[in-house]
Structures are given as C-alpha cells and as structure tokens.
Amino acid sequence: MTKWVYGFGGGSAEGRSEMRELLGGKGANLAEMSNLGLPVPPGFTITTEVCTAFYDNDRNYPADLNDEVETALKAVENLVGRKFGNVADPLLVSVRSGARASMPGMMDTVLNLGLNDDTVEGLAAVSGDRRFAYDSYRRFIQMYGDVVLGVEHYNFEEILEIHKEDKGYVLDTEMSADDWQEIVEGFKAKVAEELGRPFPQDPREQLWGAIGAVFGSWMNARANTYRRLHNIPASWGTAVNVQAMVFGNMGNECATGVCFSRNPSTGENRFYGEYLINAQGEDVVAGIRTPAPLTKIEREESGSDLLSMEEAMPAVFADLVAVRDKLESHYRDMQDMEFTVESNRLYMLQTRSGKRTAKAALRIAVEMCDDGVISRDDALMRVDPAQLDQMLHPTLDPDAEKQVIGMGLPASPGAASGQIVFSAEVAEDWAHNKGRKVVLVRIETSPEDIAGMHAAEGILTARGGMTSHAAVVARGMGKPCVCGAGAIKIDYRGGTMNAGGVMLKEGDVITIDGGTGEVMLGEVATLKPDLSGDFSQLMEWADGVRRLKVRTNAETPEDAETARGFGAEGIGLCRTEHMFFDPARIISMREMILAETEAGRRVALAKLLPYQRQDFIDLFRIMKGLPVTIRLLDPPLHEFLPHGDNEIAEVAKAADVSESIVRRRLLDLAESNPMLGHRGCRLGISYPEIYEMQARAIFEAAIEVSKAGGDQVIPEIMIPLVVGKKELEILKAAIVKVASEVETEQSAKLTYLVGTMIELPRAALRAGDIAEEAEFFSFGTNDLTQTTFGLSRDDASHFLDTYIAKDIFAGDPFVSLDQEGVGELIALAAERGRKTRPDIKLGICGEHGGDPSSIAFCESQGLDYVSCSPYRVPIARLAAAQAALKK
Ligand code: PEP
Ligand code: MG
C-alpha cells in the first residue's frame, strides 16, 4: 500500500532529507531537522505522489488519504498536547506548499488554520491575550480568504485601512482586541458577500480547503510560468506540509526571521539575516514591515536604528547560532533558514540550500573547499554554470558622473540602466515587442510579476528587505535589484515616481546598482567585470578536470580578445560573411555579387582580398597559434544586396553598369526560401572564385603571421552546408590548388586542415563518405536543428511557447540541443566519420556550444571541443568540467 503521509516532530521523523522527490524540499528538510534533534514544531507532509495521483484521477484524492491524515494529525495533537478544533485549547496549524525545487509561483502559506468564532476565544483564554487571538484570527481569514477562497487581498486591506482612518490610528499596533474583533466581523462579511456563503467555521473543512488549494496551485498560471522559466516538469508535483503553529506575534518575547548561514549576496562566511519582534513569518517575506538586522555587526554596518536580535535576545540568538553551525556542517552547504521565537523559545520552520548570487556561489564553493569541508569536485558541482553569466555583467564605472536620487538595499548585484516601467505587463511588452531596455519599478513585487521581472534589465522596489520576494527572485534570475528604497514614492495611477524630489515618469531612464543600493538618474557608464580571485580559482580547477576544449565563435578582433580573456582555446567558428558589412567593403561585395561574369566578379574580389587578409592576420595574431577555424562564405547572397534607390545607384556607379542592370540582377537573385537556397558551399560550387579569394587570404595571412616571428598558424578551413562528399571533393581540390600557388609565390610551406560543417541531416547520414575528404567536422546545430525539425530558426518563436506549454517540446530546441533527434544525427555522424577517419577532429559551433546540458551531451559523444560566443566561454568551461565529473 502506498504511504501518502509522513510525520515529523518530537526528535524523530518518518522522512529524511534524501526524500525530497517524495516529500518536496521543505518536507524533506523538516524531517531531517527533526531527526537531528532540532526544535521543529511537529507536523506531517502529504507527498508529491498525492499531487500526481490527484491530477491523474480528475482531481480526486486517493481513497485512504483521509485516514492517513487523521492518524498523522492525532500524532501531532499528542506531541503538542492540544486538539485540533478543541474550543477550550485549540491546536492551530500552518499549511504550506513545498515542491522538489523551490517555486515562488505557487500558493505558499496559510497560517493559524483551525481558528473560528469559538476556538478564537479558547486561544484568547489560553494565551491570556485577546488582542493576539483576534489579530491571529483576522490574519487567518485574510490569508485563507486570499489564497484558498480567492477573495483578493485588497478587499481586506481596504476594510482595515478604513477602520484605522475612522479611529485615527496610524499603526496596526494601536489596534485593540475589540478593534481586531470588529475587523474579523468585517472580513467575514466581505467573504460572505464575495462568495455567497459564509467563511468556513469547521476546522477540518478549512484544512481540506487549504490542502486542495496547494494542490490546485501546482497548475496555476504563475506556477506554470515559473516552471517553464526554470525547466521544472509538471509531472513532479508538490507536497503539502501541515505543521503545528508557533507564534512569533505573542508579545515582545516573540519574533520571527529569515537567516542565511553565510551572506547570500557576497558569500562572506558571516551569519546573516533579518528578523522582526512580535511578528508572524509572512511579515518578513512580504516586505510589509522592514525588518531589523540579525547581528550586531550587521546593524552597525547598515546604520540601522533597530536593535539586532543579537542584542535584543542574546540567549535565543546563541541558540540560533548553534543551529546555524549544526545545519551548515550537516548539509555542507550554505543554508537559508526560517525561524520563529515563541516566548523566548526558538523553533525552526525551514532550512534549505540558500539561493545565492554567482559571486557568493563562487566564494562559498572555493572557501568551503579550502577549509576542507567539501572536495574540489564538489566545489565545481556547486556552481551553476549558467549563473556565471551574472559575474560577467558590468558594474558601475567608479569614475563616471552620477546623480544619486535614491537609496535602497543592495539586493542583487550588477548595474542596470533602462526606462522606468511600473507594471510587469508593460515591462514584458516594451522589452519583447519594442526591444527596449526597462527597469521594473514596483512598490513591492509578487509572484504575478515574474515574467515582467524576467523581461526587465533590473528591478527597483520601494518596500521590502533583502529576503523580500523581489530580492529572492532577482538573485535567482541574476538581475540587478535594489529593494526597500523607502524614500521613493511611486504613484501607479499617475505613472510617476518621486525620488528625492526628482519627478520621473514612465519611460524616463534610470540606473540602479544592485551592489550598493544606489538609484541614479539617466544612464551611468559601466565597467567590465573583474574575473580574478574566486572566479579564476574555480576556472582553474575546472580546466584541471575537463576533457572538452572550449573555443569561441568570433570574427572581430574585439570578440576574439574578449574570448581569450575568458579562456577560449581557439576559434571554432569565424563567420566570414560578417566581415563584409563594413561600409568600406560592402560596395565591393555588392559589385561582386551583381557582376554577371566571372571576370567581373574577380575584379571585385581583388578589391576585397586585402581587407580579408588583414582580418585573418588580426585573428591569427590574437590567437597566438591556437586553432582558428574559418568558415567560407555561407549566407544567401541577397543578404548583401542593396536596398532602396540610393544604394542601387551607388553600386551601379561602382560597377560601372546601369541601374536597370542592377535591378534585373536583383530580381534574378530573389529566392522564396533563401535559407534552403543558394547559400553555403552552393555559392562556392557556382562561383569558385569567391572561395579561392578567401582561401588565398587565409594562406597569405598565415604565412605573414608565421614569418613575422609569430606562432605557427595552422588554419582550419571549413566548408558550410555540404550534403555529401562530392561538393567537398571539388572545393577541397580548389583550396589545395590555391595553397600550392601561395606556397610557390611565397616560397613557404603551409600546414592546414580542410573540413566541413555537418548541419544538414543528409550530411550527417553521409558522414562516412564525407570523412574521406574532411579532416574535421563541426556540427552546425543551428541549421541542423532547423532542418531536422523543418522549423525555421528565424520564425519558430511565434509558436514555440505553445509547443512548450503543451509539453510537445521540453524546451526551445534552438537553445538546448534536442538530444533524441538532432543528437542522434550527431551521434551517428560522429560514429560514421570516425569509422572512416579514426582521428577526425569533432566539434560543435551552433548556439548549443554554450548551453550546459548540450555540452554534457557533447561530452557523452566524446567530441573534441565546443565553440560558443565569447561571453559563454566561462560557462562552457565549467559545464565541460561538470560533464566530465558526472561521467
Ligand atoms: C549553425 O548552423 O549551427 C552554424 C553555426 O552556422 P550559422 O549559425 O552561421 O548558420
Ligand atoms: Mg549554419
């Protein structure tokens, strides 16, 4: 019989931390903390399998679930010594969702469940605090009403605001027990009005309502978006945690807080956190009150005028420090913990591996390794390669002029400039449809804003602490974020914000610095990141274990230099067509394309040769003897053609022909499907003189660089878009001929390779033949994905989302390699190629070369190298190391 419910508490548990798939992250760690003897309020976890069964059975629960919940609830009652629903002394519980991976898009928490018109009086009597009891009851109605019954938050806020206004109160603390009781009546009336039925009074009905809401929230739109952005499969399901309540809001000997065993922003090994005296957990996370620092040193450094927990509650603080030490050494990782203090007793409500910035991830991994806590291999596995991207982002130029107009908390590092937008929808619209850079400015963010946060360059909020929603989500996304900038007044309706007396409206540009918390007017200059220290240490370790080489896709000297700085070991793809768009060359290029005879083309090509030779000289010099793969001209020729009358006149003049001839030639060159048309090696077959010129430029450059005392250059000449051996045979012969001509002319000896891209399914299938000619293959997975799927790489985005939402595709196949289909073609081509030529060099140069999961696939196929854009080189180095370790 399947076990659906796992209990914990009283120093033991039925689950363990390894059971996160079944119990979700929260449930598994609550169990682990109980097993470790830490003070965890007792409770139970309803498994993720119940969620799966619920959706498989038309939203019905397994038959025996009810009995298991009753048994588990009884165990909690016995441990706490209170009964659920007992009028005199009620057990109250929290109900929280908890998936395998943390998911802020889902229903999170209902607190104080079990309160009703009768039990609230019991709570008042037992606690001796009527005000507390009614405050708890109104909080419960508010949370339950919002997340379970769907009565929106503002309905309740409005009632509370009006009441306070009538009474002339400013703060909630001025509310008396009677005030809260009145509010409870108002809230209940509002629920009844909205739903047409009263607020549920039966605690069991409340409990099942909350459980149903958690499971229901697994499929809500926000959770779906979050899953899609983070590649979390819908099949995982969420667990539900039901746990006895402890109260952080029962007076000044109570508190609640969130803490990290190390600083999640910098990685510094110093206890870090925030807390609130006399508050419930949600107050911290929701950013309703700005919390106080946990430690004295943090309080001193931040200049906060609120007393730290270390100073206000030294004994409980010492207990918390002990828990921090125990959990960090047990999990051997930085922990993110939630706690509550009830009447000077500490209770742990959650622990998990803390989300951290890339900078913190690197520092924590390197320091834990240096301290002997984890191995070097562990350290390498601890850092998410994709997250390194954050490190590569610019920071503010310290010498740049700036006008600081506001200050908040430095919640997620990096500098970002953009136009102000005040809603997530506008952020998405402007960024995606209008190509604008935006900074999302909100009073506070909520899970509904996820997509807009993703679209923005950075996020600024007026309310909330370092652990508020905005801060946590931004850090996870690697977006610069400043939060809690309380002096900034935002007016959603007017579409304005007032920052230090400066009035700004939607569309105005600001810059935020998520490393300092500064908000600045206009765009402020930035600097390239510093990649020394922990970054270079981890990269060095990665280089020590990886087998795959990492090259870059680059054709400009700037890109080549950047990539070298990031550790590229050569160029895997130099797209020569990009070299012809320069204004000095485009005219000759157009002249060449529009010429109607070979002689005409040769005249134009002769003008291009010196430019092209210099391009290669520059690249060879920068790459200092590292391999450089140069791809001969690939795109359809019409990409270079003139547009509009002026350009046509210009070309006609340069080529000394009439404009009507140019226009006729333009018509000749038009194609219905250019990507499947006259491009790639087909150009070399039709117009051999083009590739001859390019080969000559490569060879002459190689000799010049070698002669000038540089490193010996062994160029790799790559032919694009072949469908079989014959094309390569013809083109290779032409290249070899040019090589021997250049050797004779220059009395020099050349060493070079000729190879091909494998980027069409037929080429993959015929790889055995092709390898008779090709000395290397480079998988062009952009075109190979396009042609294997029959899916245009330029247009697919219009419907890809639908395909992904309907689970037809797991993700965008142009981002992460489709290992089942495209991957099979690669595997087959590699095998056939190696059979013909055992030492054939194999690499990949499509966009997938910088994608960690695709890199793991390349490792599994034993490819020699991956090649990716310069900024992804560090990502690829780490991903290649992780792939080697996993293997
Ligand atoms: C490819 O097709 O994967 C490739 C690298 O070439 P391009 O993107 O230039 O077509
Ligand atoms: Mg291609």
What is this structure's SSE topology?
Layout: E1 5-9, E2 12-13, H1 20-35, E3 43-46, H2 48-56, H3 65-80, E4 83-84, E5 90-91, E6 93-99, E7 109-113, H4 119-127, H5 130-148, H6 153-167, H7 177-195, H8 203-217, H9 221-230, E8 238-244, E9 255-260, E10 272-277, H10 282-285, E11 292-293, H11 296-302, H12 309-312, H13 314-331, E12 335-342, E13 345-353, H14 358-370, H15 376-382, E14 395-396, E15 404-407, E16 409-412, E17 415-421, H16 424-433, E18 438-442, H17 450-455, E19 458-461, H18 469-477, E20 481-483, E21 489-491, E22 496-499, E23 502-505, E24 509-513, E25 518-521, E26 526-527, H19 534-545, E27 549-553, H20 557-565, E28 571-575, H21 583-594, H22 598-623, E29 628-631, H23 644-655, H24 659-669, H25 681-686, H26 688-707, E30 715-719, H27 725-746, E31 753-758, H28 761-765, H29 767-773, E32 776-779, H30 781-789, H31 797-805, H32 822-836, E33 841-844, H33 852-860, E34 865-868, H34 873-886
Parallel strand pairs: 4-5, 17-18, 18-19, 19-20, 27-28, 27-34, 28-29, 29-30, 30-31, 31-32, 32-33, 33-34
Antiparallel strand pairs: 1-2, 1-3, 3-8, 6-7, 6-8, 9-10, 9-12, 10-11, 12-13, 14-26, 15-25, 16-20, 17-24, 21-22, 22-23, 24-25
Helix pairs in contact: 4-5, 5-7, 6-7, 14-15, 14-19, 19-34, 20-22, 21-22, 21-23, 22-26, 23-24, 26-27, 27-29, 29-32, 33-34
The structure holds phosphoenolpyruvate and magnesium ion.
